[in-house]
Structures are given as C-alpha cells and as structure tokens.
Amino acid sequence: MKKKVLVARPTFPDVIERLKQHFDVDVNLGDVLPQDEFVRRLADKDGAFTAGERVGDAELAAAPNLKVVANMAVGFNNFDMKAFDAHGVLGTNTPNVLNETTADFGWALMMAAARRVAESEHFLRAGKWSFDSFLGNDVYGSTLGVISMGRIGQALVRRAVGFDMRVIYHNCSRVSPEIEAKLNTEYASKEDLLKRADHVVLVLPYTKENHHTIGAAELALMKPTATLTNIARGGIVDDKALIVALREHRIAAAGVDVFEGEPNFDPDFLLLDNIVLTPHIASATENTRRAMANLAADNLIVGLGEGQRAGNPPNPINPDVLKK
Hints:
The chain is an alpha/beta fold. The protein is 35% helix and 15% strand.
C-alpha cells in the first residue's frame, strides 16, 4: 500500500505526477487551505508538501502517521521545530535554488521604489501626464546597505558592482575577510548602516530574535531620502511603523514583498503612494519555482524511503530526527 501525502498548495502537474509514482497523493488545487481544513486533510498522511502552512504541536498531534513535511521555501518560520522534534517528524526546506532569482527581484523592488515606478504608472493609467514630476533618487553611485550577508545577501551585493555603489552590510557575525574583499563590502553596525545607506535591503531569516528588526526607532535613523526593501519575511519589519514613516515621509519609499500575517496585510499600505507592493513573489520565475517544487518532492520521496535515493533527504532542517 502506498504511503499518503498531502500537497497543500497547487504546484506543477509534472511534480504531482512524480509524487504519484510513489504515493497516494491528496492535492489541494484551490486557494490556501483554511487551517482547520489543512489539519483535517493532514490527519491520515505520512508526508506533506507545504508552502507556508502553519505546522506546530496541534497539527502534528492530529497526524500520528506523519513523518516528513517538505516546505517549498527557504524559510521555515511556519514550522514549530520544537514540536517537530518532540513528535519525531522531519522538516525540510529548499535552499540555494532561489538565491539569484530572489536577488534579481530585490533589485527590481529597490529600483522601482527609488525611481517611483509604481506611483508614476498609476498616474499614467489615470490618463495623466507629467514630465517634471516623480523625481526619485539615484541608485547608481549611492550607498547600498544589506542586512544579512547569507547567500541571497551576497548575490545582491554582487549586482552592486555594475551600479558603482558603495556597499555596507550588517550580519549577526562578520563574514570572512576574503568574502568582504571579493564583494568590496564593509561591515557596519545596524545603527550605522541605517544612518548611512541610501537603500536598505533586508534578507535576514525570521526568528523570534529578528522580530521587528526594523521598527519605529530604526526607521527614524534612516535618511529622509532613503528607501527600504523587504524581501525577507513578514515580521522582520513592524508594518504599522513603516506605514507611519512612509505616510509622514520620514523615508522616501519602500518596496515590500512580505507582510505580517500574510496572506492578510494591513490595508493602510494601499493608501500610500510611495510604496511598491508585491504578493511574496521574489522567487516567482518558472525555472526557480519548478526547481523549488522538485527539491521539495525530492525531500519527500527520499525522506519517506521511496525510490532509488531512499535515505537522508537533501535538505533536512532537524537532521537529528533521522537518527531516531
């Protein structure tokens, strides 16, 4: 008898077919499942393919057969890893395959915010025209501040060379001198970075310690001409504080791809002109999302002991569970 797997979000048909070769697959083809429906459909499953669904103690307790939950994302703040360990369930993610695509999108958001692209497009669509309005701020020759210098942060910084930018970064610990030299970047405290940068980009993972890394106090340190771009996770920024800062023009503009409480978000964002809003699509290219989906499928197939590569899955988050 085949093991049972829940695919909680729609994904590529060929990926579903791959999974069906190994599993009895229950596929959600609609919108995001309400949490109670997700729990109900998870109850008799051996594995799950998720993309942001909340999985904690209550969900795991209601699914006694569950062994592997494969998140189609790098971040896994939707997983309560203490609960995963307690229930002996393996969590996996999909790192590395989206670094360059996400870095590209970070630049797209930053430049759109700096040059007021969305604001001017809305103006034009309203049947208006102005050659002299919508003066933005230069990206070329300015100072880029990157908070978190992991793989995506480093990919962002590599793109700064073509814009002749000065680059400063803040990280929980300094990267090696070799990486700093290769990227021509300078370490700075968070406060110093916020004061100096013309464009601040956030790429740090969400943790309890990183909650509201950018709040009212941090926004007050930034230049009134500066932009803030968040391609990290909702909760890294205090959204209400950002709305106030943008409304009062304490900073010039923002580009935001992630929100607190998404898919819901603060409707006051929609009242602002000086912000570019996107629905968590930084990794959304055909090639990258396909690579993410296949990697999540690999994690399920291998983690549940199916196929020729049965054993240790490629991307375990809590590998100690495998020993048990």
